[in-house]
Amino acid sequence: MGRRKIEMKMVTDRSCRQVTFSKRRTGLFKKANELATLCAVQIAIIVFSPGGKPFSFGNPGVEPVVGRFLNRGDEHHDGQSEPSGSATGRSERLVEELNGIQRRIQLEKKRGEALEKALARAKASAAAAGGGSDSLISRSVEEMGMEELVEMRRRLVDLREQLDGRAVEMEASSTLLLLSNKSESAGDSRGGSWGGGRRRRSVAKWRD
Amino acid sequence: MGRRKIEMKMVTDRSCRQVTFSKRRTGLFKKANELATLCAVQIAIIVFSPGGKPFSFGNPGVEPVVGRFLNRGDEHHDGQSEPSGSATGRSERLVEELNGIQRRIQLEKKRGEALEKALARAKASAAAAGGGSDSLISRSVEEMGMEELVEMRRRLVDLREQLDGRAVEMEASSTLLLLSNKSESAGDSRGGSWGGGRRRRSVAKWRD
DNA sequence: AGAGCTATATATAAGTG
DNA sequence: TCACTTATATATAGCTC
């Protein structure tokens, strides 16, 4: 969206990263505000700057939205509201978190597919331009293969780095989630047929 | 940003509003993902659809970010504090599943980046044109590269399929786990599929 | 619903003061 | 580091299937 296209990789330069963060944070909040305005919905965004400073946006505020998400009431909205006393709140929240993860997977999948298509087109294009010789294509493919090998190696290294620390975070939060859930009675009646191995969507409670 | 400029007022038509919500929510999450990637920051978004259904995005997850915000927020905080504890066997498994999914997301992301690079290279190579190439030597390398590509793609496609099934499985299984939390029995074990619903594809624990 | 498809509206990477 | 500008890259409104 600027003079040049940038790679979706962490900006290495601290200064540039800070600038990018500020600009994009502004843009993100603006988008969130538009979404809230156009669709009259509750939304909350929490983001920590590279320096660790917290920034937030919320309609009508961060706490009401987070609270609602965490199932602590505040259902002052027209839509459906949790049956009071429901013990499935946390479960549903976890499910939504999982759904969120699933959506991210879908996003990445889409991106991958788009890239594959583009790659295919590029190769076809190169083939057409190359006339009778396939040397160009061969060279491209060859380089790509080499590139892949290098990338794969780097990928593994990066991956391990990213996982360290993240796994810890995930573990802590997830554990808290589960432990806190334990103290409640789950007495939900809908689950009668769970043991039978019903597959797919069972907890759909919202209409979207 | 479309064919026509729209007023920043609530979209009156319910149907249009829903469509707008879906599109913009997708765009917002995408932006958030980019921000998180480019600047390596923690971010969480929670939004309720017009119908009241919750959607969320989080890097590394909603819970970690919200928790950090609530506990150490410089701007807001409601004094919420979570008790800490150790993981149980069951939660450990769930945590591992979550971590696994997170790892896969990272892999997908990396894959996209790699393909993107390859694409750029292919284009550049094709554009540069004129490059002579000897069929003798590069032939073998070419074939190797080709095989490499084909093989890698196959594996990636497999991974994608697994991820899709896995995510769905996680959703159902987690819900089952939590709902039947008090009945208990746990048992489990690493290898098997969960309680009831398995899918045809047995998910091989990472390694390939 | 949900997946494309443009024509436009916006966001924003660099550049400039 | 900020405030602005500007050339490009993206997002998306309205449609179609």
UniProtKB/TrEMBL annotation, chains A, B:
Residues 71-80 have a biased composition (Basic and acidic residues). InterPro entries: TF_MADSbox, TF_MADSbox_sf. It comes from Linum tenue. GO terms for molecular function: DNA-binding transcription factor activity, RNA polymerase II-specific; protein dimerization activity; RNA polymerase II cis-regulatory region sequence-specific DNA binding. Keywords: DNA-binding, Nucleus, Transcription, Transcription regulation. This is MADS-box domain-containing protein. Gene3D superfamilies: Transcription factor, MADS-box. It comes from the Eukaryota. It holds the Pfam family SRF-TF. SMART domains: MADS. Residues 1-61 form the MADS-box domain. Residues 197-208 have a biased composition (Basic residues). Signal peptide: none annotated. GO terms for cellular component: nucleus. Its main location: nucleus.
